Amino acid sequence: MHAKPSATPKGGGILRQPTSVWATAFAAVVAFMGIGLVDPILPAIAKNLDASASQVSLLFTSYFLITAVAMLVTGWVSSRIGGKRTLLIGLALVVTFAALAGTSGTVGQLVGFRAGWGLGNALFVATALAVIVGAASGGAESAIILYEAALGIGISLGPLAGALLGDMNWRFPFFGTAALMAVGFLLIVTLLRPTPKPAEKTRLSAPIRALAHGGLSTTAFTALFYNYAFFTVLAFTPFVLGMSAHGIGLVFFGWGVMVALASVFGAPLLQRRVGTVRVMHLALALLIVFQLGLAFLGHDGIIVCTVLSGIPIGLNNTAFTEAAMEVSDSPRPVASAGYNFVRWMGGALAPYIATKLAEEVDASLPYLVGAACCAVAIGILAVRRRHLEPLERVDADHAFQDAPAAA
Predict the structure, then answer these.
(1) What is the value of pTM for the model shown?
(2) How large a percentage of the chain has pLDDT more than 70?
(3) Residue 205 contacts by C-beta under 8 Å, 6 or more apart in sequence?
């Protein structure tokens, strides 16, 4: 099987996009804000709802577990009702459950509402990538970079918004997200034209069947271990920083800025120079270094390593997303659904396991496990490298296309 071509047509810059693409990208920014929004207020939630760190970590676990499972039905839904309607249903669910989360009286209620939020997020995020790729000028590569830029901006602004609003009341970040998503809903309603339904309806089993492809399964299971390390940093570190909501928010804002810069600028540059697979190896190795730093350095070292870990995370976010889109012959929405189903399991498992390990053993152990997961991911890439040869052919094609411009 050969990778789908992803050459970027000339004349379409990444910033020269239709209004509908910007509307979808704005909503995507807000959707991704929801991932890190609770970071600065995790200690406050634990205190106000009389819950342990591991109980509060279930906010991430329920969110990503439902997100992962729901990925399997996003293509089935969107192929029957269209991309625009799927986006709107997802946004409506996020608005509803984010608002309900702000009314929670127990940690159990909050965990449940975050699960509903995860369902809406899955419908929106998986469809948004397909909509942006389909509507953006500049080809799939530019569209994916734009999508990753939205992810980076959202992840960086989420903790900042969570800190500013959470400093007044831990409930306010949830209400703020609901309000912003309502704005996104209105933008999609007014600016995005109805998207055509695919010629063929997607079968429920399509994402699982797509994972039978060696390249896609290699990318997905490598990303599962990488995401475990990623969400160990994101979900566990607020408990070891020992800072106020503002302090935690600023640390993770810096982290998110590194994610955004690496995603949008660093990853494309390195991919052209050394190829996508080598970028994955490099980023995973860097993440091991920062995980070890988080495990063994003092408080200031934890702050520095947290911020700098955004660099390999940003590189990997772009590299893995492009790999999942290009490595197989499956339609992009189907490949995305199968890939995200597997990789978000890492985001579901890491927060609870990491906090439990810290509570029952030692606070350094979660990061050591995260480093070990990155090592496993490198091993999978090495052992199954032949399945990623289509990516190397695409990288070679890009290098050939860039050669005249560089000469």
Answers:
(1) 0.82
(2) 88
(3) none
- What one-letter code names the amino acid at 56? V
> At residue 340, what is the residue type?
N
Tokens of 287: 């993440």
Q: What is the CATH number of domain 19-192+207-402?
A: 1.20.1250.20
Going 43 to 49 to 55 to 59, the CA torsion angle's sign is: negative
Give me the residue label for tokens 């996020």: 94
Q: Dump pLDDT digits (tens) for 332-369.
A: 778 888 888 898 899 889 988 999 999 899 989 999 99
Q: Which of 27, 59, 62 is CA-nearest to residue 177?
A: 27
What distance in Å separates the CA atoms of residue 268 and residue 284, rounded to the nearest whole number?
A: 17
The alpha carbons of the chain give a radius of gyration, in whole angstroms, of 20
Domain extent listing, the chain: 19-192+207-402
Neighbour count for residue 382 (Cβ, 10 Å): 10
- What residues have CB less than 8 Å from 61, skipping those under 6 apart? 111, 348, 349, 351, 352
Record the tokens describing residue 181, joined without a space.
């998503």
97 token code pair: 């459950």
Q: How far is CA 407 from CA 175, 229, 275, 373, 402, in A?
A: 53, 40, 19, 41, 9
- pLDDT, tens digit, 9 for 90 and up, residues 294-333: 999 988 999 999 999 999 999 998 888 888 878 888 777 7
